Automatic annotation (TrEMBL):
Homodimer. PROSITE patterns: 25A_SYNTH_3 (PS50152). Gene3D superfamilies: Archaeal tRNA CCA-adding enzyme catalytic domain, Beta Polymerase, domain 2, CCA tRNA nucleotidyltransferase, domain 2, Poly(A) polymerase predicted RNA binding domain. ATP binds at S54, R57, H140, K160, Y169. This is CCA-adding enzyme. CDD domains: NT_2-5OAS_ClassI-CCAase. A single active site specifically recognizes both ATP and CTP and is responsible for their addition. It comes from Halorubrum californiense DSM 19288. Its EC number is 2.7.7.72. Residues 155-264 form the tRNA nucleotidyltransferase substrate binding domain.
């Protein structure tokens, strides 16, 4: 434990904001809050402003530059007026800001080097009466601010740094990790960062925490943390089983062999084409990639659709005998490992970002898979029912007995059932991926139109993806827990 405490002490020095950083943020937030109050005073309706999120609670990692201000309007104000007045305040406070959209529009900008979100919401009595998801955030802030002392706040920062270091932080639907609010609730519930990792190493999902003991429904997620401000909601609903397992793995590693490296995010260097070909030579598999323009939607819409499309293609490949060893969806967008950005309004730390990093051009997406089999025989076996099952067996037999196709063998009896060997629909993986059948699988609704104009790469041709997809390719070929 002495070794662990020594590591955590050094990490604290790096990740806890210095007093000067805290004061700069406090001054910036105070100025922006006053500007917001002045802008509210010009409106024909009443409202107030509250700072929310990690920087309001002192739980931000050094270097994070986010200030989140929520303008609360009367709960009876209709949506159109809330949007109108909210944007008016946002543009008055951030004249060089721009509009973005989460559940409703808001203004995003910068001030004194800080990223600022100015978000309108309804001032509801309880979280159970919320009109939109962002209305919940001030309740989160009030709950945590009343319970987190300086020691626990510091442990929250350690937990966030740890989760960032292992790649499991972020409630966007690409990452499917731990949100800031979830992290803070877990530290609060377990009593600190070390108790949290000590507990996590022995979890047997499903694991449930109910801070206020008032769950009103049953949840089926691997980790359940009932929202203390809204008992109908699981704060950990977005967290994937893989990221929960990742957290457990590295919790055990930290306790067994404490290391500062676990708190330091590792940005993978892109693979180049030569390195991709070296992996292909060593593995002896055949890679395939279906590449197309990603639909222009926010990432919390894009990534579920890419995953759904990947599942559909993998299912189709397996159904046609091209056995998939491993697969993943990728984009060529900037950011960690092909991430396109996030959309987390009213979820993690009270932020409301919903932007896409277009990097000056259209984003390309790839459904990438490694196959154990890429070519099948010209015929395939098709079994009918046992001969003893008279009605169904007769139907099967009669459907083939008069078949004049010279490429069909049978029907004949093998063991106790009718069998035919018929021409295979697709003998090569390229034939399948370029066919209409590949579009007939369950694709994301907005992926489907783009999929029609796809490029199919097979074998070493995938090495040409390296300049654009180098980071996700390194993650694919050099995976870690």
């Amino acid at each position: 434990m002495d070794e662990l405490e020594a590591v955590l002490s050094r990490v604290r020095e790096r990740v806890l904001p210095e007093p000067e950083e805290r004061e700069r943020l406090r001054e910036a937030a105070a100025t922006l809050t006053e500007r917001t109050r002045e802008a509210i005073a010009d409106l024909p309706v009443d409202a107030d402003v509250v700072q929310v999120g990690s920087t309001a609670r002192g739980t931000w990692v050094a270097g994070d530059r986010d200030i989140d201000l929520f303008v609360r309007f009367d709960a009876d104000l209709d949506r159109a007026e809330l949007e109108e007045y909210g944007l008016a305040v946002g543009h008055a406070v951030l004249p060089e800001g721009h509009e973005e959209y989460a559940e409703h529009p808001y203004v995003k900008g910068s001030y004194e080097g800080f990223d600022v979100d100015l978000v309108p919401c309804h001032d509801v009595e309880t979280a159970a009466e919320l009109v939109s998801a962002v209305d919940r955030t001030p309740f989160h802030d009030a709950y945590l601010s009343a319970r987190l002392d300086d020691g626990l706040a510091g442990d929250v920062v350690l937990a966030k740094a740890f989760l960032k270091g292992i790649g499991a932080y972020g409630s966007d639907l690409r990452t499917e990790g731990f949100s800031g609010y979830l992290t803070e609730l877990l530290v609060l519930e377990l009593g600190g960062f070390v108790p949290l990792v000590e507990s996590a190493r022995s979890w047997h999902p499903p694991v449930e925490f109910d801070p206020e003991g008032h769950a009103e429904r049953t949840f089926e997620d691997p980790l359940v943390v009932v929202d203390p401000t809204d008992p109908t909601r699981n704060v950990a609903a977005v967290l994937s089983a893989a990221n929960l397992a990742r957290f457990q793995h590295y919790a055990r590693e930290l306790l067994a062999a404490p290391s500062e490296a676990l708190f330091e995010p590792a940005e993978p260097e892109p693979l180049d084409s030569k390195e991709v070909r070296a992996h292909l030579d060593r593995r002896g598999t055949t890679p395939v990639a279906v590449v197309f323009d990603a639909p222009e939607v926010v990432d919390d819409q894009l990534w579920p659709q890419l995953r759904r499309s990947l599942d559909g293609i993998v299912g189709g490949l397996n159904d046609h005998g091209f056995d998939v060893l491993r697969a993943r969806a990728m984009t060529n967008a900037t950011g960690a490992a092909g991430a396109v950005g996030t959309s987390n309004a009213g979820t993690s730390d009270g932020g409301a970002t919903a932007d896409r990093n277009l990097s000056g051009g259209a984003i390309r997406a790839a459904l990438y898979a490694e196959l154990e089999v890429t070519e099948r025989p010209a015929v395939e076996r098709h079994e009918g029912p046992p001969v003893a099952v008279r009605k169904h067996a007769a139907s099967f037999y009669e459907s083939y007995v008069d078949d004049v196709d010279p490429d069909t063998y049978g029907p004949f009896i093998d063991e106790n059932r009718y069998v035919v060997e018929r021409e295979r629909e697709f003998a090569t993986v390229r034939e399948y991926l370029e066919s209409d059948a590949a579009s007939d699988v369950a694709l994301g609704a907005q992926v489907e139109p783009a999929f029609a104009d796809r490029d199919v790469l097979v074998g070493e041709a995938v090495a040409t993806l390296a300049p654009a997809f180098g980071r996700p390719l390194r993650e694919f070929y050099e995976p870690r827990p």
